[in-house]
């Protein structure tokens, strides 16, 4: 057992080994940017797959919708820079909301983020697999299997304790950015016929409008397309969670990185959107828009396969970031008593193993249910991000309000951080207000436009998660009260009754051993046996008599029973003794159990001992003693 | 829990209610004949599906092969009548072999029979479903689901304790026999143009020979066809197992019933084989030969649906007989120590529930693997029957030899039965010899001809089962030795060391309760705590001091540990105490466990208590005491 685990996961790390790697900006950018940059693999397509309903002629609108999305991204990035500067210890939406808004908003943000992290894995892995199957269409029928294998691989790596080791991340991230940028540049060169480049093949395909849409329905469709494009915003918050991973000065470096990340992500998004719109590409199930565009521009040469390969790479890395975020947030919540306590326990490799496993299972289920179709999952995706953005910005709005009241040179402590007087706090507050209102607006649009397409699932799950947080919290509070030693006097601890009950089925070495143990701790030992036939009873009495020297001063109680569930009379007897003879005292039950040394041998026994034990556990004031007799035997 | 079980399975029966119903010949025939008679649904087809390789013109051979099979059936029936007369207590192959041949042959027969019973369920249910889908071809794609549902239904009925209530059985058995007989009579009338009946449509279809076959390969093919037809023999032994179910005089009534059963089953077999051969029917996957024949003869009228409906009915009944035989034989084997002991435990409704459930699971798996195609399963099927027939006949040969040595008026006891002098014992012995040799011959033919088609599975499984019987037996013998009280003196039972170890994680009401219990039974109480940080240790020492009044005269041992698997140091400490300080004595460990009253609340705790408990169970000489603290709380 231990050996298999060690081979798979690696040798265990001592707790004291837990030191953090600090990243320079170049590597930090690679680590944190993989998630937002990778959304370029599907964001444009998410807009187009809505607009296609109007027919291929309306796909030109994608460009305008894309510009609106890009504007929102810039707004959100500038708002998050404020967060970074004020929460240098790491300010996820949960922390900011807890510090400024209170318990409920923080839990709401946490629930939104958790669903978002899960979907990050499902969406990114599915999109990554699609990048592979776009290049190799024969693999399309195995997409679900490939996606699940990818999740298993990422899970395995994370259980081994892959850290945010920037170097590994740097390769696919920069290779993707470089490859796509080059494609875009070639695309523009060819599109505008610069340098005498051969002009681009504009696809002639036509798709007729499925329905004629006008008036309110038209606006509705545009809103849906815009909401689809908002998946480009996912992952932007990652840096704010991980400020401590930067070299000093952390906040400043993080803020700079955020700006670069924004510029990079938006260049790609705007470039891809412009070109695919003007090349009249049409979304297809089997080949992604990015793949179609790259294929058309590059003519399917080496650069095409480069882009596809690193698209898959960066998407798997994006999934990997959720493996950092989900377990960390779960552990925070667990530490505050809102998640099961074992979410905080770190495994042999110092990672939050439970969180990793829970994330993998849920993400795999989503991949299965949605058959690895990331476009179908997108309606669920951006919703959580937007809600957490909005809550986080609202928290920052509050914080800025408090800062605006400080006089120059003044500084105060909040629960989590220290704030100082700063200039232009009112202006920044206004920016946060705009950010909060806009992202909340997008949340509402997403919720209403995508409700029937799947957003309802998230709308159901987030409140359920919040309710779960509250009830877990209540449970732990109750446990703490029950176990509290406040005002505890020694007579409060139940007295131990001077009685020991030993359920037996026969007199043999094992039961005699149990009886001897019982005799040592009590003067009132009662062996009880449920007999199912007169022969059994006679045999038992005969054997009891034979060992009268050992069993003297013990009572043998036989219960005749005409059914086969001998557990019932045993338990009834024990309960009667506990409730009537010795109320409010601890009754002791000694269970003679024989344990075959080979585990498989255990299936050959009736397991009565195990069943008595697990039944008695449900009754208060019963102490169970296991007196095992080991039997050295294979089956 | 109990309520759901009671609704599904019914109120529990007292053990004393177990009285057997006795059957008159008419109803006994219906009960026992369903299995052999039902094989008419596929036996002819099993022959034809081999011969079709030679092309449809060679299907005429079916008739000759069928006659050979019928001859064998008659031989086996006459041999089995001997068994019935000499083992009135019920003489399955297992009993006969145990009484006359010894342990190994009896276990071989038992293994063969168990595989046979399992296949009876899979084959009969699949064939029954095929009768349904032959009539309603649209249901063909759901055949696996229907088959599994049928198994679940039969399982459910048997768990409720359906007895061999003859009346229920009588309806489909006689309805099937009547329906098929009527079809055959109409068929003959039309075939021979008697009474001016419209002549039968002889099907014009032609299938070309797949390969040209001659010489040895031709004989091989005929043998394979014969072996296929031998499925008609399955179920013949049923009466010999159930002699006690007959009214007095049991043996005589059973023997008479056996003869009638043979006549009935063979009339149908010969009739079906003659007609389907002479009508040039060709086996098809979606429609059975019986269905084709009936459809052609009746023209698809009411009689056709009658036959199809009761074909399904009698096949499900045939499956049901395995639900009597498999659990009964398993319980016999269990009683002799060759199967897990819980196979003998009768459930709330006085049936051997474990056997029923095991049978259902394995039979369902086979249906799934073979996709409910009974023709594909047949190569596995008849093998077990033939082996058990052969062993049983050999046993009878031995018994007859002993009888032949008796003088008139003399009688002796075997282990199981009483035998008297009888006339013609030598002749009967010769009959048994022929039976044994022939069935063994068929077994060899089946094994070699069907080896690659699936018989190898059975050839593998039977020895594995026998090996399992032996190793289970060995295990129980070892357990009996280990628990034996022969020459047991009180000093042989391990002494109890005066030490109690209490693993704790913190000082709270629960751990204090455990410490108080420990103090009551020992003067040397040691609380041990694994600390993972200096803060944790300081806090623990502070709290221990606070309760110094309660904890005086107890030791607190803290172990500093730099890993998270705190189980390891706990267990190491306990083992050291047990091995070094108190060798050969029982060391007591008191585990403070808190038990949330709501089961779901338990997932919120680290389960350290449960893990310590299950780890310590593997070490000898450690007594585990659970001191539970119940916490009244929902999550």
Describe the structure.
The structure is a homodimer of 635-residue chains. With 635 residues, chain A is α/β, with parallel strands linked by helices. The first copy, chain A, folds into two domains: 22-474, Amino acid/polyamine transporter I (Up-down Bundle); 490-631, Rossmann fold. Chain A contains 21 helices and seven strands. In chain A, the strands form two sheets. In chain A, strands 5-4-3-6-7 form a five-stranded parallel beta sheet, sandwiched between helices. A two-stranded antiparallel sheet of chain A has the order 1-2. The longest helix of chain A has 59 residues, at 425-483. The first copy, chain A, starts with a helix and ends with a strand. The model of chain A has no long low-confidence stretch (mean pLDDT 85). Strand 7 of chain A pairs antiparallel with strand 7 (622-631) of chain B, so a sheet runs across the interface.
Which descriptors would you attach to this protein?
homodimer, 635 residues, alpha/beta, Amino acid/polyamine transporter I, Rossmann fold, 5-stranded parallel beta sheet, two-stranded antiparallel sheet, 8% strand
């Amino acid at each position: 057992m231990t050996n298999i685990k060690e081979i798979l996961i690696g040798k265990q790390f001592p707790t004291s080994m837990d030191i953090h790697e600090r990243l320079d900006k170049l590597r930090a950018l690679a680590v944190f940017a993989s998630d937002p940059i990778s959304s370029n693999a599907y964001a444009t397509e998410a807009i187009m797959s809505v607009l296609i309903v109007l027919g291929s002629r309306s796909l030109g609108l994608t460009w305008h919708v894309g510009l609106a999305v890009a504007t929102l991204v810039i707004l959100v990035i500038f708002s998050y820079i404020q967060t970074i500067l004020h929460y240098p210890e790491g300010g996820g939406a949960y922390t900011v909301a807890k510090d400024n808004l209170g318990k409920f908003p923080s839990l709401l943000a946490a629930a939104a983020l958790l669903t978002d992290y899960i979907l990050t894995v499902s969406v990114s892995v599915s999109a990554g697999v699609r990048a592979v199957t776009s290049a190799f269409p024969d693999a399309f029928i195995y997409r679900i299997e490939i996606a699940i294998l990818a999740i298993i691989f990422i899970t395995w790596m994370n259980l081994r304790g892959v850290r945010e080791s920037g170097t590994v991340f740097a390769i696919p991230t920069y290779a993707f950015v470089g490859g796509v940028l080059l494609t875009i540049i070639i695309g523009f060169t060819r599109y505008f016929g610069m340098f005498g480049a051969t002009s681009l093949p504009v696809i002639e395909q036509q798709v007729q409008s499925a329905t004629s849409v006008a008036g309110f329905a038209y606006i509705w469709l545009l809103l849906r397309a815009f909401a689809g494009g908002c998946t480009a915003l996912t992952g932007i918050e990652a840096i704010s969670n991980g400020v401590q991973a930067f070299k000093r000065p952390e906040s400043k470096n993080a803020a700079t990185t955020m700006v670069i990340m924004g510029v990079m992500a938006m260049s790609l998004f705007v470039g891809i959107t412009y070109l695919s719109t003007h090349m009249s590409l049409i979304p297809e199930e089997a080949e992604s828009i990015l793949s179609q565009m790259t294929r058309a521009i590059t003519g399917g040469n080496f650069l095409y396969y480069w882009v596809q390969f690193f698209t898959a790479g960066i998407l798997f890395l994006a999934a990997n970031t959720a493996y950092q975020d989900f377990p960390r947030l779960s552990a925070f919540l667990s530490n505050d008593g809102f998640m099961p306590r074992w979410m905080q326990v770190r495994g042999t490799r110092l990672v939050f193993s439970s969180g990793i496993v829970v994330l993998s299972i849920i993400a795999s289920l989503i991949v299965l249910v949605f058959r690895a179709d990331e476009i179908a999952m997108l309606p669920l995706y951006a919703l959580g991000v937007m809600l957490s953005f909005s809550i986080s910005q609202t928290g920052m709005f509050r914080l800025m309000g408090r800062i605006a009241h400080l006089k120059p040179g003044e500084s105060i402590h909040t629960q989590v951080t220290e704030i100082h007087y700063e200039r232009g706090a009112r202006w920044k507050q206004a920016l946060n207000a705009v950010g909060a209102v806009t992202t909340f607006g997008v949340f509402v649009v997403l919720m209403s436009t995508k409700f029937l397409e799947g957003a309802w699932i998230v709308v159901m799950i987030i409140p359920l998660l919040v309710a779960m947080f509250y009830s877990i919290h209540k449970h732990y509070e109750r446990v703490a009260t029950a176990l509290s030693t406040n005002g505890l006097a020694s007579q409060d601890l139940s007295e131990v009754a001077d009685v020991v009950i030993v359920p037996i089925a026969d007199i043999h070495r094992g039961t005699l051993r149990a009886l001897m143990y019982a005799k040592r701790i009590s003067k009132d030992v009662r062996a009880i046996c449920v007999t199912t036939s007169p022969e059994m009873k006679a045999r038992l009495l005969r054997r009891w008599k034979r060992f009268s020297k050992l069993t003297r001063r013990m009572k043998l109680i036989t219960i005749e029973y005409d059914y086969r569930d001998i557990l019932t009379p045993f338990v009834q007897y024990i309960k009667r003794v506990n409730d009537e003879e010795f109320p409010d005292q601890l009754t002791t039950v000694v269970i003679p159990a024989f344990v075959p040394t080979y585990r498989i041998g255990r299936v050959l026994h009736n397991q009565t001992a195990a069943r008595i034990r697990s039944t008695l556990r449900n009754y208060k004031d019963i102490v169970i003693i296991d007196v095992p007799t080991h039997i050295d035997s294979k089956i």
